[in-house]
Amino acid sequence: MEQDRVERTVRIAATTERVWDILTKPEHIGHWFGSGTPAAVDLRPDGVMVLEPGDGERYLARVVKVDPPHYFAYRWASAYPDVLADETNSTLVEFHVAAEGEVTRLTVCESGFASLTIPADREAFASYESHSRGWTEVIRNIADYVEQGAA
Amino acid sequence: MTTAVLDHADELFAALAEPNRRLLLEHLGTHGVATATALAAELPVTRQAVAQHLAVLESVDLVTSARAGRERRYTVHVEPLTAAASWMNHVATQWDARLAAIKALAETPPTS
Q1: Closest to A116 (Cβ–Cβ): which among B9, B25, B98?
Q2: Cα A40 to Cα A48: distance, rounded to the nearest angstrom
Q3: Could B100 and A10 be called an inter-chain contact, meaning their C-beta atoms sit closer than 8 Å?
Q4: How confident is the model at residue A118 (pLDDT cuts 50, 70, 90)?
Q5: pLDDT for B74-85, tens place per residue?
Q6: Helix A26-33 with B79-107: angle, nearest 10 deg
Q7: Mind listing the pLDDT tens digit for each residue in A30-78?
Q8: Residue A45, preceding peptide bond in cis (omega within 30° of 0)
Q9: CA A44/CA A60 separation, integer angstroms
């Protein structure tokens, strides 16, 4: 299922190796992901990576692929704190790191939302802004996601 | 919100993947309430195709219908849509913040 994904890109004035270190080293993950505490990371396929976004929860992500300095992927069960990510409860997060002239292009793609079941008690965060937006805009946003996914 | 809104998200996204169904939803939203005949008059598809699209949309709870005389009148049911989309937006916003943090860290010279 390729229709349900969020993709974001940023351009960074640093080498691909530097960006790779930030992405994968425990002390850096702790900073960009949230709490500031170094994250426990077993950086190999099926290794466990403990993510703490700073909301008091812990997420047990599972490393899928490590291909330095270009590709890093893990699954995380963002609706299920303390539960190890598997194929049924999680989304796939992929990072692509590529040199682009003088800078490095970093793209993150999170996919697999459609096959998730979100427990009712986690819905507050799933629908936190659902009443503040025009629904025709919402359709266009979904269309954008759908079309990005199809591309 | 009392039910797990994303428990049939795969069908929801599949329903919205068809451009004519999105167009149909927008037209229906503009009218508030409309019959398949009225919608077919405005769209580049047959009444039969409109009826089929409406059935798909109704099966994923994006439209509701009520019988009025010999025809059904349809209305848009927004909640599943806004919940799914706002969640995706929420995820995207979080990634924007994380990527900005990664950029800031990477562009700060290492202190070794």
Answers
A1: B9
A2: 8
A3: yes
A4: low
A5: 998 877 776 666
A6: 130
A7: 888 877 788 899 999 999 999 988 778 899 999 999 999 999 999 998 8
A8: no
A9: 14
Higher pLDDT, B33 or A54: B33
pTM for the full model?
0.64
**In A103-137, which positions are buried (b, 16+ CB within 10 angstroms) versus exposed (e)?**
bbbbebbbbbbbbbebeeeebeebbeebeeeebee
CA dist A7 to A58, A94, B93, B99, Å? 24, 9, 11, 11
Q: B18 at the A interface (CB within 8 A)?
A: no
Distance from CA of A46 to the nearest CA of B (A): 23
**What is the rounded distance in angstroms from the CA atom of residue B90 to the CA atom of residue B94?**
6
Of B103, B101, B107, B66, the closest CA to residue A30 belongs to: B101
Q: What is the separation, in whole angstroms, between the first and last Cα of chain B?
A: 52
Asked if the interface predicted TM-score (ipTM) of this complex is over 0.90, the answer is no
Rounded Cα gap, residues A2 and A113, in angstroms: 10
Question: Residue B103 — very low, low, confident or very high, per pLDDT cuts 50/70/90?
Answer: very high
Nearest residue on chain B to A122, alpha-carbon basis:
B4
Q: Say whether B6 and A120 touch across the interface (CB within 8 A).
A: no
